[in-house]
């Protein structure tokens, strides 16, 4: 008789778990955007709870809630902005929690969820493929299944997830192998060098910008080896997993690179070059930045800083010492950010490319946008305009609020707000001195920037209306 009760309770327990799983599945299938936001917010709450614990701080004292929340959002959003000294405030437990958080945020919540589902079920069902596809191409959330060639096809999602896992681990491992010897040469002990080497690698590839060393990047300010390794990690992370997947497929099978991959690569390299040239020209005589460096180091520093505006967040100079003109250039570069479905933030380089192609088509009198001998549908342009306007609105509202709270100069406030929205992590030093209310506003800005304006807009829309008629056309005067 004693063994009969557990046997009868087991089916009821499974039934309860099955019902909970069905509710979650229905929620995920019906509103994938809101499901993404729910998972993302839950991870922020979990990491905040861990960082508040006394065990997370090196001094054994509980971290204030606002600082724990800000750090958690910054880690999950892979931003890099911080209100505490990352090298001295957190204990080994806290640093480990932060490292896991930025890895989760870098890979992408939806992609990670699909990877875990693949591990559990050893196969991908249609729902898991749709969730992963939404993470790699947000327009699927906005307008449903899309057929453009730059999208990752549902049948390729399994290959994409494998590429995500393998590329992330492989790139970070190689970067760590490159960085660790340099830390040993610098005088670090073996275990601190290994720990900080992997921390630097993960922070670079995920475009977070957290620096585990107490001295920051000061020791490597003009070191080609270290700056090259970190810059390469940030560049690869900012391309996006669909681009990495396309390049791997191209090298393996000789497949043609998609329009998305080509636009991302071309625009990213072009913006890095423009940014580096701008820093060289605008900061050449500024002895507080690159003006005091050698003629060989100036191009290196300029290129590194331009690469960091992709969303990297590492800096070898005091950002607050930059000229106002350079800060404005960085504002524009950070607002654009990196590639879609990448570890970078911003409105994305493909959004900028589509807007430019639309302007070019209008100037030429063409009815359609073209790139690399392919036609780009007009709904992509509408989405690009929506993303840009939503992003600009978020930045404007946050800037006005923090200006009112702090009374700081506009250029400093605007820089840190755009850095938060674009999950970049570069700062003029304003973030550390913000009052609690300003920290909460900047944390919300990071959250909105990482969730993505497309996902946020789709989540706010209760449903998509389908009109069975077309209204009479009338053209307003534009321009």
Short description:
The protein is mainly alpha-helical.
List the secondary-structure elements in sequence, H or E. Answer: HHHHHHHHHHHHHHHEEHHHH
Q: Which ranges are low-confidence, i.e. pLDDT below 50, for 5 or more consecutive residues?
A: 1-9, 147-151
Q: Based on DSSP secondary structure assignment, what is the total number of beta strands?
A: 2
Largest sheet: 2 strands, antiparallel
- Give average pLDDT, whole number: 81
Helix content: 55-70%
Rg is 23 Å
In the sheet with the most strands, the strands line up as: 1-2
Counting helices, strands and paired strands, the structural category is: mainly alpha
- How many helices? The count is 19
* Strand percent estimate: under 5%
Oligomer: single chain
Report the principal-axis shape: globular
- Terminal CA distance reads 84 Å
* Overall number of domains: 1
Organism: Salinibacterium amurskyense
GO biological process, one term: metal ion transport
Pfam families: TrkH
Membrane topology: Multi-pass membrane protein
Report on the structure:
The structure is a single chain. With 479 residues, this protein is mainly α. It has helices at residues 4-30, 32-52, 65-76, 92-107, 109-121, 126-136, 139-143, 157-186, 190-205, 224-239, 241-253, 259-283, 297-308, 324-336, 349-364, 378-406, 410-421, 436-451, 453-460, and strands at residues 369-371, 374-376. It has one domain (33-459). The chain has a two-stranded antiparallel sheet with strand order 1-2. 48% of the residues are buried.
């Amino acid at each position: 008789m004693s063994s009969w009760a557990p046997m009868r309770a087991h089916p009821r327990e499974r039934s309860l778990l099955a019902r909970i799983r069905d509710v979650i599945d229905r929620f995920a299938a019906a509103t994938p955007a809101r499901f993404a936001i729910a998972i993302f917010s839950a991870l922020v709450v979990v990491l905040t709870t861990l960082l508040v614990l006394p065990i997370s701080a090196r001094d054994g004292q509980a971290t204030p809630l606002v600082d724990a929340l800000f750090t958690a959002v910054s880690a999950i959003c892979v931003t890099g902005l911080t209100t505490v000294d990352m090298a001295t405030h957190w204990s080994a437990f806290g640093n480990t929690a932060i490292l896991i958080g930025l890895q989760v945020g870098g890979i992408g919540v939806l992609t990670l969820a699909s990877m875990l589902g693949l591990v559990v079920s050893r196969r991908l069902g249609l729902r898991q493929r749709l969730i992963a596809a939404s993470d790699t191409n947000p327009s699927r959330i906005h307008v449903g299944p899309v057929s453009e060639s730059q999208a990752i096809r549902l049948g390729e999602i399994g290959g994409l997830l494998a590429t995500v896992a393998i590329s992330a681990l492989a790139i970070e491992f190689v970067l760590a192998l490159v960085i660790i010897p340099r830390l040993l040469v610098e005088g670090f002990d073996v275990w601190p060098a290994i720990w900080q080497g992997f921390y630097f690698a993960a922070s670079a590839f995920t475009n977070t910008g957290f620096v585990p060393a107490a001295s920051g990047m000061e020791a490597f300010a003009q070191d080609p080896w270290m700056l090259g390794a970190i810059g390469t990690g940030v560049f690869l992370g900012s391309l996006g997993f669909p681009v990495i997947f396309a390049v791997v497929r191209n090298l393996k099978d000789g497949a043609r690179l998609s329009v998305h991959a080509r636009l991302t690569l071309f625009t990213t390299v072009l913006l890095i070059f423009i940014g580096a040239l701008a820093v060289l020209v605008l900061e050449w005589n500024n002895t507080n930045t690159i003006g005091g460096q050698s003629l060989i180091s100036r191009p290196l520093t300029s290129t590194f800083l331009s690469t960091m505006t992709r969303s990297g967040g590492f800096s070898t100079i005091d950002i607050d010492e930059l000229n106002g003109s350079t800060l404005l250039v960085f504002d524009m570069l950070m607002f654009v950010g990196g590639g879609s479905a990448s570890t970078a933030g911003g409105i994305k380089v493909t959004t900028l490319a589509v807007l430019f192609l639309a302007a070019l088509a209008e100037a030429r009198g063409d009815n359609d946008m073209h790139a690399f001998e392919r036609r780009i549908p007009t709904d992509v342009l509408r989405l690009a305009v929506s993303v840009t306007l939503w992003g600009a609105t978020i930045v404007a509202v946050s800037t006005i609020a923090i200006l009112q709270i702090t009374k700081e100069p506009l250029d400093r406030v605007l820089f840190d707000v755009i850095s938060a929205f674009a999950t970049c992590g570069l700062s003029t030093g304003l973030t550390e001195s913000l009052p609690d209310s300003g920290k909460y506003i900047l944390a919300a800005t990071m959250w909105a920037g990482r969730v993505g304006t497309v996902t946020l807009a789709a989540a706010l829309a209760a449903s998509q209306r389908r009109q069975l008629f077309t209204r009479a056309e009338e053209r307003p005067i534009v321009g």
